[in-house]
């Protein structure tokens, strides 16, 4: 009886390890946005094949006390992009379709999460 429980526990642990070791899915394509550069001019930034399901705070605008938010996002990835006005995927949200058109400069963001369709 003990051997059966030991084998069952080992098989369960092995299955859990296999699931947790599965590679993370990355959105195929690029996500573009603009930030205000040090010279006050717009600067284009690109995230190449970003991870899906993980909140990404945009590093250039991570400190709301010292930077303006990013703007004009363009989701050219295979996933939906939820953009947030705050860091850590907080605040107001807007959804961008996969391989959609660029948004206007009026759409502000500080973080984004990609969701597989």
Written description of the protein model:
The protein is built from one helix and eight strands. It has one helix at 2-20; strands spanning 29-36, 42-48, 56-57, 70-77, 80-84, 93-96, 108-109, 111-115. The longest helix has 19 residues, at 2-20. The protein is globular. Residues 1-22 have low confidence and may be disordered.
Assembly form of the protein:
single chain
Return the structural class.
alpha+beta
Categorize the overall geometry. globular
How do the strands of the widest beta sheet line up side by side? 2-1-4-7
Poorly predicted runs are 1-22
User: How would you characterize the largest beta sheet?
Assistant: 4 strands, antiparallel
Mean pLDDT: 85
Report Rg: 20 Å
Number of strands: 8
Count the DSSP helices: 1
The helical percent reads 10-25%
User: How many angstroms separate the termini?
Assistant: 46 Å
H-E order: HEEEEEEEE
Tell me what portion of residues adopts beta-strand conformation: 35-45%
Helix-strand layout with pairing:
Blueprint: H1 2-20, E1 29-36, E2 42-48, E3 56-57, E4 70-77, E5 80-84, E6 93-96, E7 108-109, E8 111-115
Antiparallel strand pairs: 1-2, 1-4, 3-8, 4-7, 5-6, 5-8
């Amino acid at each position: 009886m003990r051997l059966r429980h030991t084998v069952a526990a080992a098989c369960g642990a092995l299955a859990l390890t296999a699931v947790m070791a599965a590679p993370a899915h990355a959105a195929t394509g690029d996500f573009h946005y603009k930030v205000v550069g040090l010279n006050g001019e717009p600067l284009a930034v690109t995230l190449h094949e970003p991870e899906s399901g993980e909140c990404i705070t945009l590093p250039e605008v991570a400190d709301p006390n010292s930077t303006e938010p990013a703007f004009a996002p363009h989701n050219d990835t295979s996933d939906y992009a939820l953009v947030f006005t705050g860091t850590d995927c907080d605040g107001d949200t807007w959804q961008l379709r996969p391989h959609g058109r660029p948004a206007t400069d009026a759409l502000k963001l500080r973080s984004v999460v990609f969701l597989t369709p």
